[in-house]
Design a protein that fits this description.
By secondary structure, this protein is of the alpha/beta class. It has helices at residues 36-46, 61-66, 71-79, 83-93, 109-114, 117-120, 140-151, 212-218, 229-239, 257-269, 275-283, and strands at 5-9, 30-31, 34-35, 51-56, 97-102, 125-128, 132-135, 154-160, 170-178, 181-189, 200-208, 242-246, 250-253. It has a five-stranded mixed β-barrel with strand order 8-11-9-10-12. Bound molecules: 1-O-phosphono-alpha-D-glucopyranose.
Length: 287
């Protein structure tokens, strides 16, 4: 079965970027001129997704506005003959079908995904978390979809993380199948390094069979008092095989300030119009 739907939860508060995120969603922080969430939506589209369900919360209205038509702005750009900008602005609102579901209270990632249940309609679906930008010719979600097509099983993207950071990730225990694939044996949400089954972490891209939803429903409140997706995955693996896939690509966790700055520098260096001046500027810092 084709994977055409993606759930993108964007209800988190973004406290790491306060005060900027006091009045703007963290997903709207720009990487130069394109918000983080735009990159995530592009990844979904380039992976074959044509129906996106955003799980939003309070103060996320600007995400809806961003992907909507902007008649006054379009009129203004038309009058000023700024055709390039006009096209960029119009393209954003016609990218893909987007639906918005509001999560009333931030009760955890598992709960956020459950709110999309009616829309998912018993089909396999992708989940993309709104913080990560992953750069690669074959998008990370597409890599997961390819694995799903091969085995018909839920597949989660993983990478090796520094041992001292296991407390920020769902950490897996897996049986290696080949150099990039593990059969999932266990997954633990945010273990301290001494309790972590490995240093291989789930990074915010998933493809699920629809049975994940019933499994999330069966979970009880997990770590941090939240309904955790990881606990749902744990239950699912009792019923079905699940794969963990070591994706190819460069990941930027833009919810982290250092990674956010790195993303901006790398995108600037990849931009023909900017790279010369940015390189000159950076030379001044070489020790
Ligand atoms: C969530 C998941 C975690 C995963 C992480 C990836 O945590 O609960 O399992 O490893 O995303 O970014 P969060 O970062 O939302 O706290």
């Amino acid at each position: 079965m084709e994977i055409k739907k993606a759930v993108i939860p964007v209800a988190g508060l973004g406290t790491r970027f306060l005060p900027a995120t006091k009045s703007m969603p963290k997903e709207m922080l720009p990487i130069i001129d394109k918000p983080v969430i735009h990159h995530v939506v592009e990844e979904a589209i380039e992976s074959g997704i044509d129906d996106i369900i955003f799980i939003t919360g309070r103060s996320k209205r600007s995400i809806e506005d961003y992907f909507d038509d902007a008649p006054e702005l379009e009129m203004h750009l038309k009058e000023k003959n700024k055709d390039n900008l006009l096209k960029i602005v119009q393209d954003i609102s016609s990218m893909v079908d987007i639906h918005y579901i509001r999560q009333k209270e931030p009760r955890g990632l598992g709960d956020a995904i459950l709110t999309a249940e009616k829309h998912i309609n018993d089909e396999p679906f992708a989940v993309l978390l709104g913080d990560d930008i992953i750069v690669n010719k074959t998008p990370c979600t597409k890599q997961l979809i390819n694995n799903f097509k091969k085995y018909g099983r839920s597949t989660i993207a993983v990478e090796e993380v520094p041992m001292e950071k296991t407390g920020s990730y769902g950490i897996i225990q897996g049986k290696p199948m080949d150099e990039s694939l593990y059969l999932l044996e266990d997954i633990v949400e945010k273990p301290e390094p001494e309790n972590a089954p490995s240093n291989i972490g789930a990074i915010g891209r998933y493809v699920f069979t629809p049975e994940i939803l019933d499994c999330i429903k069966k979970t009880t409140t997990g770590i941090g008092g939240e309904i955790q997706l990881t606990d749902g995955i744990r239950l699912l693996k009792e019923e079905q095989q699940i794969y963990a896939y070591k994706f190819t690509g460069e990941r930027y966790d833009t919810g982290d300030k250092v990674e956010y700055v790195k993303a901006i520098i790398d995108f600037a260096l990849a931009n023909e119009d900017m790279k010369g001046q940015i390189k000159d500027h950076l030379k001044g810092f070489c020790i």
